[in-house]
Amino acid sequence: MSIEEIFKQDDLEKIMRAFIAERRREPERLNEMLNIQLITCNKEERTAIFEFPIYDWELNPNNALHGGITASMMDYALGLFANCICRQLGGVFSPTVDLNVRYLLPIAGADKVQIKAQLLSSGASLLTLNGEASIQKGGPLVAAASATYKVLQR
């Protein structure tokens, strides 16, 4: 299946929700503790929006979201989108090759973080995505990321 075909599917959101449910089998892992939720997909923009609740254990001494947790949320959201695309391309797994996170504002006084993941390009073996984090819909960006994922074939 080509990238164009993947983003023409009417059931892309359903495929992604099933992929997330499959990951729920490992409750003791960090990714599962982050409790990701898929909000929506936009096939035309090649985006997916994810939401993460913020828990007390994720806060730093200043009661803001720890930077490492922000990076983990970015990698999880972008990586989950990349892995879903990877599987649709016939691959089996899509590990992170590169992740660059830019912290723009402290994430404090919020109960959720939304991350918009966007597929920028896909080659024979690499997927490149951007991520934008905000604490409210339409609010200012609090973090931005770019990442590359390797498409591993069977």
TrEMBL record:
UniProt keywords (A-Z) are: Hydrolase
What is the scientific name of the source organism?
Answer: Aminipila butyrica
In what residue span(s) does the Thioesterase domain sit? Answer: 63-139
Note the InterPro entries from the entry: ACOT13, HotDog_dom_sf, Thioestr_dom
The name this protein goes by in its record: PaaI family thioesterase
Which Gene Ontology MF annotations are present? Answer: fatty acyl-CoA hydrolase activity
- A Pfam match is 4HBT
Family note: Belongs to the thioesterase PaaI family.
